[in-house]
Amino acid sequence: MNPNITQLAKIAGKKSRLIIGLMSGTSLDGLDIALCRISGSGLSTKVDLLNFQTVPYNNEIKSGILEVFAKKQIDFQSLCELHASLALLHGGMILQSLKKWKYAPAKIDVIASHGQTVFHSPQSITPKARINSTLQIGDGDHLAVKTGIITISDFRQKHLAKGGEGAPVAVYGDYMLFSKKRQDRIMLNMGGIGNFTYLPGSMDASKVFVTDTGPANTLLDQAVRTYRPGIQFDNDAQLAKQGIYNQQLLAALKSDAFFKLPFPKTIGPELFNMGYVVKAQKRSGTESISLEDLLATLTRFSAETIASAIKKVIQSKKSFRLFFSGGGAHNPLLIQWVKELLPSVQFYKTDDLGVSGDAKEAVLFAVLANESLAGGKLHFGSRSKVPSVSMGKISFPK
To answer: Facing residues of 20 across strands?
Structure first.
Protein backbone atom coordinates (compact mmCIF):
# COMPACT_ATOMS: atom_id res chain seq x y z
CA MET A 1 0.00 0.00 0.00
CA ASN A 2 1.18 3.51 -0.76
CA PRO A 3 2.55 4.98 2.51
CA ASN A 4 0.39 8.07 2.01
CA ILE A 5 -2.74 5.90 2.07
CA THR A 6 -1.42 4.04 5.10
CA GLN A 7 -0.94 7.32 6.95
CA LEU A 8 -4.40 8.51 5.95
CA ALA A 9 -6.01 5.29 7.20
CA LYS A 10 -4.12 5.65 10.49
CA ILE A 11 -5.42 9.20 10.93
CA ALA A 12 -8.98 8.11 10.11
CA GLY A 13 -8.80 5.39 12.75
CA LYS A 14 -7.63 7.65 15.59
CA LYS A 15 -9.92 8.43 18.53
CA SER A 16 -9.35 12.14 17.92
CA ARG A 17 -7.66 14.21 15.26
CA LEU A 18 -5.87 17.57 15.24
CA ILE A 19 -7.33 19.46 12.30
CA ILE A 20 -6.65 23.01 11.16
CA GLY A 21 -9.70 24.63 9.58
CA LEU A 22 -9.16 27.56 7.19
CA MET A 23 -11.65 30.12 5.94
CA SER A 24 -11.22 33.20 3.76
CA GLY A 25 -14.55 34.79 2.95
CA THR A 26 -15.94 37.39 0.57
CA SER A 27 -15.01 40.22 2.94
CA LEU A 28 -11.34 39.58 2.07
CA ASP A 29 -10.22 40.69 5.53
CA GLY A 30 -7.82 37.80 6.09
CA LEU A 31 -7.39 34.09 6.74
CA ASP A 32 -9.23 32.51 9.68
CA ILE A 33 -7.14 29.70 11.20
CA ALA A 34 -8.79 27.37 13.73
CA LEU A 35 -6.83 24.58 15.41
CA CYS A 36 -9.33 21.95 16.51
CA ARG A 37 -9.22 18.62 18.29
CA ILE A 38 -12.11 16.60 16.86
CA SER A 39 -13.43 13.22 17.93
CA GLY A 40 -16.32 11.11 16.75
CA SER A 41 -18.33 11.80 13.61
CA GLY A 42 -21.87 12.64 12.57
CA LEU A 43 -24.06 13.63 15.50
CA SER A 44 -21.42 12.33 17.94
CA THR A 45 -18.84 14.86 16.66
CA LYS A 46 -17.07 16.72 19.46
CA VAL A 47 -14.91 19.77 18.82
CA ASP A 48 -12.42 21.41 21.14
CA LEU A 49 -11.22 24.73 19.67
CA LEU A 50 -7.62 24.87 20.89
CA ASN A 51 -6.48 28.07 19.17
CA PHE A 52 -7.85 30.60 16.72
CA GLN A 53 -6.70 33.74 14.98
CA THR A 54 -7.41 35.78 11.89
CA VAL A 55 -4.27 36.68 9.98
CA PRO A 56 -5.09 39.90 8.11
CA TYR A 57 -4.42 40.40 4.41
CA ASN A 58 -2.37 43.44 3.50
CA ASN A 59 -3.47 45.78 0.71
CA GLU A 60 -1.25 44.02 -1.86
CA ILE A 61 -2.91 40.66 -1.20
CA LYS A 62 -6.38 42.18 -1.32
CA SER A 63 -5.61 43.96 -4.57
CA GLY A 64 -4.37 40.73 -6.13
CA ILE A 65 -7.57 38.90 -5.19
CA LEU A 66 -9.77 41.79 -6.33
CA GLU A 67 -8.22 41.60 -9.82
CA VAL A 68 -10.09 38.33 -10.38
CA PHE A 69 -12.80 38.47 -7.70
CA ALA A 70 -16.39 38.10 -8.99
CA LYS A 71 -15.43 39.33 -12.47
CA LYS A 72 -16.47 37.75 -15.77
CA GLN A 73 -13.45 39.13 -17.63
CA ILE A 74 -10.03 38.64 -16.03
CA ASP A 75 -6.34 38.13 -16.77
CA PHE A 76 -6.03 34.34 -16.68
CA GLN A 77 -2.32 34.49 -15.92
CA SER A 78 -3.17 36.40 -12.74
CA LEU A 79 -5.72 33.74 -11.79
CA CYS A 80 -3.29 30.86 -12.42
CA GLU A 81 -0.53 32.50 -10.42
CA LEU A 82 -2.88 33.42 -7.59
CA HIS A 83 -4.14 29.83 -7.32
CA ALA A 84 -0.63 28.76 -6.30
CA SER A 85 0.65 31.89 -4.57
CA LEU A 86 -2.36 32.21 -2.29
CA ALA A 87 -1.87 28.61 -1.14
CA LEU A 88 1.79 29.32 -0.39
CA LEU A 89 0.78 32.45 1.50
CA HIS A 90 -1.78 30.49 3.54
CA GLY A 91 0.83 27.81 4.20
CA GLY A 92 3.21 30.39 5.60
CA MET A 93 0.45 31.82 7.80
CA ILE A 94 -0.28 28.33 9.15
CA LEU A 95 3.36 27.66 9.98
CA GLN A 96 3.68 31.01 11.74
CA SER A 97 0.52 30.31 13.74
CA LEU A 98 1.71 26.84 14.76
CA LYS A 99 5.03 28.31 15.90
CA LYS A 100 3.16 30.90 17.96
CA TRP A 101 0.93 28.20 19.48
CA LYS A 102 3.93 25.88 20.07
CA TYR A 103 2.69 23.02 17.89
CA ALA A 104 5.03 21.16 15.54
CA PRO A 105 3.54 20.72 12.04
CA ALA A 106 4.14 16.97 12.35
CA LYS A 107 1.59 16.87 15.19
CA ILE A 108 -1.22 18.13 12.93
CA ASP A 109 -3.22 15.41 11.21
CA VAL A 110 -4.79 17.40 8.37
CA ILE A 111 -5.54 20.88 7.10
CA ALA A 112 -9.09 21.63 5.94
CA SER A 113 -8.88 24.49 3.44
CA HIS A 114 -11.93 26.26 2.08
CA GLY A 115 -9.83 28.41 -0.25
CA GLN A 116 -10.84 31.80 -1.59
CA THR A 117 -14.04 31.99 -3.61
CA VAL A 118 -13.44 34.10 -6.71
CA PHE A 119 -16.59 33.30 -8.65
CA HIS A 120 -19.96 31.74 -7.84
CA SER A 121 -22.53 31.10 -10.56
CA PRO A 122 -25.65 29.10 -9.68
CA GLN A 123 -28.10 28.61 -12.55
CA SER A 124 -30.94 29.98 -10.44
CA ILE A 125 -29.63 33.53 -10.77
CA THR A 126 -27.44 33.19 -13.88
CA PRO A 127 -29.84 32.62 -16.82
CA LYS A 128 -27.08 31.90 -19.35
CA ALA A 129 -25.30 29.39 -17.09
CA ARG A 130 -25.28 25.85 -18.52
CA ILE A 131 -24.46 24.30 -15.13
CA ASN A 132 -24.14 25.32 -11.47
CA SER A 133 -20.53 26.35 -10.87
CA THR A 134 -18.24 27.88 -8.29
CA LEU A 135 -14.47 28.38 -8.04
CA GLN A 136 -12.26 28.49 -4.98
CA ILE A 137 -8.52 29.11 -5.39
CA GLY A 138 -5.58 28.27 -3.14
CA ASP A 139 -4.26 24.95 -4.45
CA GLY A 140 -4.29 22.05 -1.97
CA ASP A 141 -1.10 20.46 -3.29
CA HIS A 142 0.90 23.65 -2.81
CA LEU A 143 -0.54 24.02 0.68
CA ALA A 144 0.34 20.41 1.59
CA VAL A 145 3.90 20.67 0.28
CA LYS A 146 4.49 24.07 1.92
CA THR A 147 3.34 22.89 5.37
CA GLY A 148 4.20 19.17 5.20
CA ILE A 149 0.62 18.43 6.31
CA ILE A 150 -2.02 16.39 4.47
CA THR A 151 -4.56 18.85 3.09
CA ILE A 152 -8.25 18.41 2.28
CA SER A 153 -9.57 21.19 0.05
CA ASP A 154 -11.98 22.16 -2.72
CA PHE A 155 -15.00 20.99 -0.71
CA ARG A 156 -17.70 22.62 -2.80
CA GLN A 157 -17.21 20.69 -6.04
CA LYS A 158 -18.73 17.45 -4.72
CA HIS A 159 -21.77 19.43 -3.59
CA LEU A 160 -22.14 20.68 -7.17
CA ALA A 161 -21.54 17.24 -8.66
CA LYS A 162 -24.41 15.81 -6.60
CA GLY A 163 -26.87 18.48 -7.74
CA GLY A 164 -26.31 21.25 -5.19
CA GLU A 165 -25.26 24.83 -5.87
CA GLY A 166 -21.93 24.52 -4.06
CA ALA A 167 -23.15 26.72 -1.20
CA PRO A 168 -23.91 27.18 1.55
CA VAL A 169 -22.23 24.05 2.96
CA ALA A 170 -22.38 25.14 6.61
CA VAL A 171 -25.54 23.05 6.95
CA TYR A 172 -23.57 19.84 7.55
CA GLY A 173 -21.44 21.11 10.40
CA ASP A 174 -24.33 23.10 11.85
CA TYR A 175 -26.45 19.97 12.04
CA MET A 176 -23.69 17.85 13.59
CA LEU A 177 -22.58 20.39 16.19
CA PHE A 178 -25.60 22.49 17.06
CA SER A 179 -28.79 20.43 16.71
CA LYS A 180 -30.74 19.87 19.92
CA LYS A 181 -33.78 17.70 20.55
CA ARG A 182 -37.06 19.56 21.08
CA GLN A 183 -35.48 22.93 20.28
CA ASP A 184 -35.94 24.60 16.90
CA ARG A 185 -32.87 26.62 16.01
CA ILE A 186 -31.65 29.05 13.38
CA MET A 187 -27.88 29.35 12.86
CA LEU A 188 -27.48 32.77 11.22
CA ASN A 189 -24.11 33.66 9.70
CA MET A 190 -23.59 37.24 8.58
CA GLY A 191 -20.39 37.39 6.58
CA GLY A 192 -20.16 39.13 3.23
CA ILE A 193 -23.36 37.26 2.36
CA GLY A 194 -26.03 36.35 4.90
CA ASN A 195 -27.11 32.72 5.25
CA PHE A 196 -28.84 30.57 7.82
CA THR A 197 -29.34 26.92 8.65
CA TYR A 198 -32.67 25.72 10.01
CA LEU A 199 -32.27 22.96 12.61
CA PRO A 200 -35.57 21.32 13.61
CA GLY A 201 -36.02 20.11 17.17
CA SER A 202 -37.05 16.75 15.72
CA MET A 203 -33.39 16.18 14.70
CA ASP A 204 -34.72 14.92 11.34
CA ALA A 205 -31.84 15.53 8.90
CA SER A 206 -34.21 15.44 5.93
CA LYS A 207 -35.94 18.56 7.31
CA VAL A 208 -32.72 20.53 7.76
CA PHE A 209 -31.98 23.14 5.15
CA VAL A 210 -29.73 26.11 4.50
CA THR A 211 -30.10 29.18 2.31
CA ASP A 212 -28.48 32.47 1.50
CA THR A 213 -30.60 35.51 2.31
CA GLY A 214 -28.74 38.20 0.35
CA PRO A 215 -26.06 40.67 1.40
CA ALA A 216 -24.88 41.07 4.97
CA ASN A 217 -21.59 43.00 4.99
CA THR A 218 -20.48 42.93 1.37
CA LEU A 219 -22.29 46.06 0.12
CA LEU A 220 -21.42 47.98 3.29
CA ASP A 221 -17.73 47.17 2.91
CA GLN A 222 -17.72 47.92 -0.83
CA ALA A 223 -19.42 51.28 -0.31
CA VAL A 224 -16.92 52.35 2.35
CA ARG A 225 -13.96 51.30 0.20
CA THR A 226 -15.41 53.13 -2.80
CA TYR A 227 -16.19 56.45 -1.12
CA ARG A 228 -13.61 56.46 1.68
CA PRO A 229 -10.42 54.98 0.16
CA GLY A 230 -8.11 53.63 2.82
CA ILE A 231 -10.96 52.57 5.13
CA GLN A 232 -11.83 48.89 4.85
CA PHE A 233 -15.15 48.84 6.75
CA ASP A 234 -17.51 50.94 8.85
CA ASN A 235 -16.22 50.06 12.31
CA ASP A 236 -19.11 49.58 14.79
CA ALA A 237 -21.43 51.19 12.19
CA GLN A 238 -20.13 54.61 13.25
CA LEU A 239 -20.95 56.15 9.86
CA ALA A 240 -24.23 54.28 9.30
CA LYS A 241 -25.55 55.31 12.72
CA GLN A 242 -25.18 58.95 11.67
CA GLY A 243 -27.44 58.41 8.65
CA ILE A 244 -31.14 57.81 7.98
CA TYR A 245 -32.17 55.01 5.66
CA ASN A 246 -33.88 56.07 2.46
CA GLN A 247 -37.18 54.30 1.74
CA GLN A 248 -37.06 54.84 -2.04
CA LEU A 249 -33.56 53.41 -2.35
CA LEU A 250 -34.44 50.56 0.02
CA ALA A 251 -37.39 49.58 -2.18
CA ALA A 252 -35.20 49.63 -5.29
CA LEU A 253 -32.56 47.47 -3.61
CA LYS A 254 -35.18 44.91 -2.56
CA SER A 255 -36.80 44.65 -6.00
CA ASP A 256 -34.38 42.07 -7.46
CA ALA A 257 -35.83 38.72 -8.56
CA PHE A 258 -33.40 36.89 -6.25
CA PHE A 259 -35.58 37.69 -3.26
CA LYS A 260 -38.58 35.95 -4.85
CA LEU A 261 -36.72 32.68 -5.52
CA PRO A 262 -37.71 29.67 -3.36
CA PHE A 263 -35.38 28.25 -0.71
CA PRO A 264 -32.68 27.10 -0.80
CA LYS A 265 -30.75 29.58 -2.93
CA THR A 266 -27.25 30.98 -3.08
CA ILE A 267 -25.71 34.22 -4.23
CA GLY A 268 -22.53 36.29 -4.01
CA PRO A 269 -20.86 39.58 -4.96
CA GLU A 270 -21.39 38.61 -8.59
CA LEU A 271 -24.85 40.17 -8.09
CA PHE A 272 -24.50 42.25 -4.95
CA ASN A 273 -21.79 44.74 -5.84
CA MET A 274 -21.46 48.51 -6.26
CA GLY A 275 -22.92 48.26 -9.76
CA TYR A 276 -26.10 46.87 -8.16
CA VAL A 277 -26.18 49.80 -5.73
CA VAL A 278 -25.57 52.44 -8.41
CA LYS A 279 -28.39 51.03 -10.57
CA ALA A 280 -30.76 51.08 -7.60
CA GLN A 281 -29.80 54.69 -6.87
CA LYS A 282 -30.51 55.70 -10.45
CA ARG A 283 -33.92 53.99 -10.43
CA SER A 284 -34.85 55.68 -7.16
CA GLY A 285 -33.30 59.08 -7.92
CA THR A 286 -31.03 58.89 -4.87
CA GLU A 287 -27.60 59.39 -6.47
CA SER A 288 -26.84 62.41 -4.28
CA ILE A 289 -27.55 60.99 -0.82
CA SER A 290 -24.73 61.17 1.73
CA LEU A 291 -22.44 58.25 2.48
CA GLU A 292 -23.95 58.05 5.97
CA ASP A 293 -27.49 57.72 4.55
CA LEU A 294 -26.28 55.22 1.96
CA LEU A 295 -24.67 53.04 4.63
CA ALA A 296 -27.76 53.28 6.83
CA THR A 297 -29.89 52.19 3.86
CA LEU A 298 -27.58 49.29 2.97
CA THR A 299 -27.59 48.15 6.60
CA ARG A 300 -31.38 48.25 6.64
CA PHE A 301 -31.42 46.36 3.33
CA SER A 302 -29.34 43.56 4.87
CA ALA A 303 -31.46 43.51 8.04
CA GLU A 304 -34.82 43.40 6.23
CA THR A 305 -33.82 40.69 3.74
CA ILE A 306 -32.32 38.56 6.53
CA ALA A 307 -35.44 38.97 8.69
CA SER A 308 -37.81 38.38 5.77
CA ALA A 309 -36.12 35.08 4.92
CA ILE A 310 -36.18 33.89 8.52
CA LYS A 311 -39.87 34.81 8.92
CA LYS A 312 -40.72 32.32 6.19
CA VAL A 313 -39.38 29.56 8.42
CA ILE A 314 -40.65 30.65 11.83
CA GLN A 315 -44.17 31.71 10.85
CA SER A 316 -45.72 28.44 11.99
CA LYS A 317 -43.48 27.93 15.04
CA LYS A 318 -44.22 29.13 18.56
CA SER A 319 -40.65 29.22 19.83
CA PHE A 320 -37.36 29.74 18.03
CA ARG A 321 -33.79 30.34 19.11
CA LEU A 322 -31.45 32.17 16.79
CA PHE A 323 -27.65 31.97 17.14
CA PHE A 324 -25.72 34.54 15.13
CA SER A 325 -22.10 34.64 13.99
CA GLY A 326 -19.81 36.21 11.37
CA GLY A 327 -18.53 39.74 10.87
CA GLY A 328 -22.05 41.13 10.96
CA ALA A 329 -22.30 40.06 14.59
CA HIS A 330 -19.98 43.01 15.34
CA ASN A 331 -22.24 45.52 13.57
CA PRO A 332 -24.47 46.92 16.35
CA LEU A 333 -26.90 48.64 13.97
CA LEU A 334 -27.41 45.50 11.88
CA ILE A 335 -28.01 43.40 14.99
CA GLN A 336 -30.37 46.01 16.46
CA TRP A 337 -32.53 46.08 13.35
CA VAL A 338 -32.62 42.29 12.87
CA LYS A 339 -33.77 41.92 16.48
CA GLU A 340 -36.45 44.60 16.06
CA LEU A 341 -37.73 42.89 12.91
CA LEU A 342 -37.92 39.48 14.64
CA PRO A 343 -39.48 40.31 18.03
CA SER A 344 -40.66 36.76 18.75
CA VAL A 345 -37.20 35.19 18.32
CA GLN A 346 -34.78 34.53 21.19
CA PHE A 347 -31.31 35.79 20.22
CA TYR A 348 -27.97 34.30 21.24
CA LYS A 349 -24.41 34.23 19.96
CA THR A 350 -22.77 31.07 18.63
CA ASP A 351 -20.28 31.64 21.45
CA ASP A 352 -23.06 30.55 23.84
CA LEU A 353 -22.80 27.09 22.27
CA GLY A 354 -19.04 26.89 22.84
CA VAL A 355 -17.85 27.96 19.38
CA SER A 356 -16.59 31.48 18.75
CA GLY A 357 -18.72 33.24 16.16
CA ASP A 358 -15.58 34.56 14.49
CA ALA A 359 -14.08 31.06 14.28
CA LYS A 360 -17.27 29.21 13.38
CA GLU A 361 -16.82 28.89 9.60
CA ALA A 362 -13.20 27.74 9.91
CA VAL A 363 -14.31 25.20 12.53
CA LEU A 364 -17.08 23.93 10.26
CA PHE A 365 -14.60 23.15 7.49
CA ALA A 366 -12.46 21.26 9.99
CA VAL A 367 -15.62 19.27 10.81
CA LEU A 368 -16.21 18.58 7.09
CA ALA A 369 -12.67 17.22 6.79
CA ASN A 370 -13.19 15.05 9.86
CA GLU A 371 -16.41 13.72 8.34
CA SER A 372 -14.59 12.87 5.11
CA LEU A 373 -12.04 10.88 7.13
CA ALA A 374 -14.15 9.21 9.80
CA GLY A 375 -17.83 9.69 8.97
CA GLY A 376 -19.91 9.99 5.83
CA LYS A 377 -22.93 8.11 7.17
CA LEU A 378 -25.42 10.97 7.61
CA HIS A 379 -28.36 11.05 5.22
CA PHE A 380 -30.13 14.31 4.45
CA GLY A 381 -32.86 12.79 2.30
CA SER A 382 -33.11 12.77 -1.47
CA ARG A 383 -32.93 16.55 -1.96
CA SER A 384 -30.40 17.67 -4.56
CA LYS A 385 -29.90 21.07 -2.89
CA VAL A 386 -28.69 19.39 0.34
CA PRO A 387 -27.00 16.25 -1.00
CA SER A 388 -25.75 13.54 1.35
CA VAL A 389 -22.05 13.67 0.52
CA SER A 390 -18.53 13.57 1.91
CA MET A 391 -16.62 16.51 0.48
CA GLY A 392 -13.04 17.50 -0.23
CA LYS A 393 -10.04 16.48 -2.30
CA ILE A 394 -6.96 15.05 -0.58
CA SER A 395 -3.43 16.36 -1.20
CA PHE A 396 -0.37 14.64 0.21
CA PRO A 397 2.84 16.51 1.07
CA LYS A 398 5.09 13.74 -0.34
So the answer is: 35, 111
